[in-house]
Every structure is written in structure tokens, then in C-alpha cells.
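ok trying again, last paste got cut off:
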Amino acid sequence: MTKFKQDNGNHNSFFAILRHWWLARNYQPNTIKKMRKVTQQIKEAFEQRKAKTVGNTHTDGESVWLHGNKIVTRDPSGVVMATLAGWNTPTTRERVNGITGLGFHQVNFEACLNGQIVDPFAWFVKTHEPKTAMQVLPPTPKSLTIS
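nice, full thing came through this time. structure:
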């Protein structure tokens, strides 16, 4: 029975070739993430204040909904706010991050924004300082009737 020799720096060895092949197939840089086509189309419509529906995502030009949950909205002054709407899923994070440029991510199953654990139901607005966001009150309804 033939024993395989451990890789000892010889670049022609079987293990070096196998390692190179595996790294080439599985390399995914953390800093470069390609935006999904759905997100790009909805982002363009939202920025142009036009209505559009693509799959499970819809915008009326003022807000964006994913599966019927409002995840992004623009107030009358033009400030864009975002939330995960309680759904800390890869799709929700990708849509919100792609449209707003915020940095939602997950650590140990907890929703995080720029390294800080956050409430997935809270609304956030991006500030002008790099990698910062501020929690805000939820958007006010367009019409309010008081009896």
C-alpha cells in the first residue's frame, strides 16, 4: 500500500495542487459582494421614485417591501430609513444593505449593524460619518385620524 507524503513546501506535490485547486474554487473575498439583480433593479426604481415589483420585492418609489414587510422608507425630507422588520435573514440583510448602504450582518445568530448587536425590529438611518448609523423612531403614518 502506498503512503502519501505530507506537503513539505514542494509546489509540485499532490497536496499543494489539491490545496491550490480548493482555494481557487472556494475563495470568496469578504469585502466584495455582488448585489443581486433583484436588489439592483429595486434600488434603481427606489432612487428614481418609481414603482416596481421584482419577485417578492416591491417599491412604490417611497418605500420598499420584502414579502409584504416594509424594510426601507424615505421620509418627506428625503432621509432614508431601514429595518430588518424582525427578519434577520440573508435576503433581508442583502436587500437593506444593497439599497441603503448600511452594514447589517449576523454574529452568533444575532442581528448586528457595523459590529454592534441591534434590535431587528428597530429603524436605522445612515449618517454621513463612515460606518455609522443611528437608531430612529419608526416612520410616522402618512395619515393620522384622531377622534
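cool. The longest helix spans residues 14-26. The beta strands are 52-54, 57-59, 63-66, 69-74, 80-82, 104-107, 110-113, 116-117, 123-126, 133-136.
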